[in-house]
Amino acid sequence: MIRLSFSILIFVVWSGFGSPASAESLSEALAAAYQNNPSLNVARARTRAVDENIPIARSSILPNVSGSASATSIARRSRSAGFGSNLTTETDAAVGVTATQNLFRGFRTKNALREAKSSVLASREELRSVVQDVLASAAEVYMNVLRDQALLRLSQRNVGFLQEQLRAAQDRFEVGENTRTDVAQTQARLAAAQSDVSVVRANLNASRAVYRQIIGNDPGRLRLSFPYTKTLPGSLSAAIASGEDLHPDILVAVHDADAAAYLVKQVEGELLPTVSVEGNVQTSFGIDDAEYNNSASITGRVSIPIYQGGGVSARVRQAKENLGLSRIQIDVSRVQVRAAVVSAWGDLDAAKAVTISAVAQVKSSQIALDGVQEEQRVGQRTTLDVLDAQQELLDAQVNQVLAQRDRIVASFNLIAAIGRLNEDVLGLSVARYDPKQHHKAVKDKWFGLRTPDGR
Q1: What end-to-end distance do the CA atoms of the chain give, in Å?
Q2: Which domain holds residue 140?
Q3: Virtual CA dihedral for 262, 265, 267, 270, nearest 10 degrees?
Q4: Alpha-carbon distance 29 to 319, whole Å?
Q5: d(CA 236, CA 311)
Q6: Which of 36, 86, 125, 191 has its CA 20 to 30 A from that of 71?
Q7: Is there a domain that residue 258 lies in?
Q8: Using one digit for the tens of pLDDT, what is the confidence trace for 340-398?
Q9: Tell me, what CATH number does 224's domain have?
């Protein structure tokens, strides 16, 4: 039902409001938003920052090497009976290198790495959610501009029609075929129509400003198209199943729960022994007497926690509560996604029905207006009848434009609700951002201050 005659309805609804072949299509606008939207760039940067949690977690099992240097100068004054005092100075210096290697930390490093990897996966799903939001907003603002452009043309055509009616009413008044009331009624309708043009033009300017904010460039002549009909699910049950499997909000909650589970194990690891070994090499020498002393040492340490004031135990309990919260959030996300899918499906179904009705209403209103005008010419209808018929046609055309806008926006909302609103599914002609590339570039780095892009 949803896919039936979609392209036909688009043509019918917007015929008469067409744009040249060189106009910007919906797909091109979505591609521009994918490349230029600042919110999307922020989300990508946030994902790159989360990638660094993996080398941070690994650092606790890698060697820690430090160098040291010191110099000490000692002045001594001695006094002996009959010989006065004697001042002597002694200067010593030392340089050394110390390396510390953790051997066992109660499995904290392993669990920290697993937590970091789960956080990375969650951040990627959050990025996918932002992509969905940005593309849905881009589609909506595209349709808003297209809607306001169509409404402006309708309003301007209505003004032109009423101007012709006013001239005709004045001509008939001059020859005594109607009254001043007919002229006044036409003038009132014309003034209201001119006011409507100003309002619609203001709305269009506001929509254009939002268009630039989301898509990154000013809208020109836009072309209505919806090449994503095959992306829509065939049934409500299929839509719900797709949403529960693919929606990024659910996957974020799942990965957050995994990270919370590993955090519990990390904190519990603080109750286990830690084992480390420390090596030290040092050279000390006296600057005055040029004596050198070399030393080397290896020290093994085992630390067994006995009591920490109850702080670690409290943190374990807290981490377990947060884990329970994360698991509940998975169920909450599933319920929310299901509700969003059902709502989006209903909105699209309703918009489709309204669109079909609007097409029929416009056709009937146009026939009625033509008939009233013919009857007016033979004196069977008044000027007010013509004005009312024109207003009914205008209202029907406005409803037609609004219904088609709502239908396409509802389609994108449904695609987002099932978790499939992304650059790959839509087939956008863009350079795709792959968060895995940055992850591969930093996950095994042991040192270096520069980011992969050179900063």
Answers
A1: 53
A2: 6-72+91-422
A3: -140
A4: 45
A5: 51
A6: 86
A7: yes
A8: 999 999 999 999 999 999 999 999 999 999 998 888 887 788 888 888 898 999 999 99
A9: 1.20.1600.10
